[in-house]
Structures are given as C-alpha cells and as structure tokens.
Amino acid sequence: MKSITRLIAALALLITSTAFAQFDHSHKAFDDLLKKHVTYMSNGNASQVSYAGFARDRAALKAYLDAVSAVPDATYKSWTKNQQLAFLINAYNAYTIELILTKYPNLKSIRDLGGTFTKPWSLKFFTLFGKDTHLDNIEHDMIRAEGVFNDPRIHVAVVCASIGCPMLRNEAFTADKLDAQLEDGMQRFLSDKSRNRYDPRSKQLEISKIFDWYKKDFTKGYKGFSSLEATLGKYADRLSNDPAAQAEIKAGKVSISYLDYDWNLNDKK
User: Fold this and answer.
1) Facing residues of 199 across strands?
2) What is the pTM of this model?
C-alpha cells in the first residue's frame, strides 16, 4: 500500500511539474490585456492605462497572475536569463495594476496605498515562488540583484502606475524580444520632453528623478552604461535635435538637473 501511495504521489508531482514547465513564455494572457487597455500618447513616448477597463477584465488579470504565482522557484531557475527577466518585469507590472485595482477608483496616486509606515511597494499582497511577498522584492531583490541581470534599462520597463514613470508598453515583455523592447523603452522615455529634455537657454539637461534614484545602476558597464553621462550620451539625439548640443551631451559636458516626479495615476479617464 505504501508503495502505491508513493507511486501516486510521484506521478502527481510529475504531472504538476510538467504543467509548471509549460508556462506560457509568450505571456499572451497579459499581452492581450495590455493591448486592450493601454493607449499610447505623446507620439508614442508615453501611455495611459484604462484601469476601469482592467477592472472589467479583472478575472482575466487574476487568471494570469495565478499562473505567475504557481511557478515554482526550481522551474524559474531552469529558464534562460531572458525568460526570467521578462517574467519578473511582467509580474511586477501586472501585480502593480492589481494593486491599483484594490482601491480604484478611489485613489489619485499609488502612494495613496499603504499606511503611515508602509509604502505601497512593501505591501505583501501576492505570492511568488511559494512566499508571500511585495513589489519591492521583485524589483530590488530579484531584478536589481547584484550580478544577476545588471541591465539598467529595466528602469524603463517596470512601471509604478504614475505619470512620471516611463510608459507602460501595450505589449508584454518576452524573452525573444526583450533586448529590443528594453532599448525601445529607453529611446521612447528619453524622447519624451515632459520627462527628459535639453534646455537650450540654460544649456542644461533636465531629466527624470529615476536617473537620480538609480544612478549607480548606470555605472556597471552593461552595454556601454558606464556612467550616467555615458548613458545620456548614447541617447543624445533623443534629448536634443541640435547637433552642437548633441555633441556636448555625448562629451559629458552638459550639467544635469532633475525634474519633479509626477506621482499622479497614469489613468485614462
């Protein structure tokens, strides 16, 4: 009897493991929702999110998040780096939308969530890899963990539901398109003059506070991101149309200031 019980348990584990191993790396369920409820604006360099639309499709969002939460740590570790990073970025963005929906429409900013001593990003409201956890765990302990991905472009991919954030894409991140999506995100973000710009009068760069908060992430040498100045130099043509200004930006000779961050909800009314 014990042998039969062990055999049944082993078969159940095998079936379960096989199901987890078949996680949909196209993230189609989330991709469909993003295409339906995210609208591009400002020449495609910013976006608005229909949280009311996501609320109507909340069952579909929860079904996707259930699939995310069901992935065991061992299965995640068996994936390629690109599969892992795409998974974590999508998980962060999808859980952020779910967090907004817990109080929507009765909030103006993600910072309205949480409490006096608890920030919204440290609220434990979902399970990942078998543990109750929070958004900060995905971003800082997994995505930004030293020596794991080291790609500073993730800062234009994980979106905190605010106008000041880089745009939420109207497509899910996937392993096969990840590098192109991250690069496209950088170009779009640095092309948005409301959040990053060169002021020809003061001859100064006025850029997002994201580059201040996470400045050290742009000093690790990944794909030429050896410093903040080098990073901005890579995208000089996005920051200014003036060849002379572009040359100064590329040479790192332009002073930098940081714009106020707009925490209002990136909601499409």
Assistant:
1) 204
2) 0.91
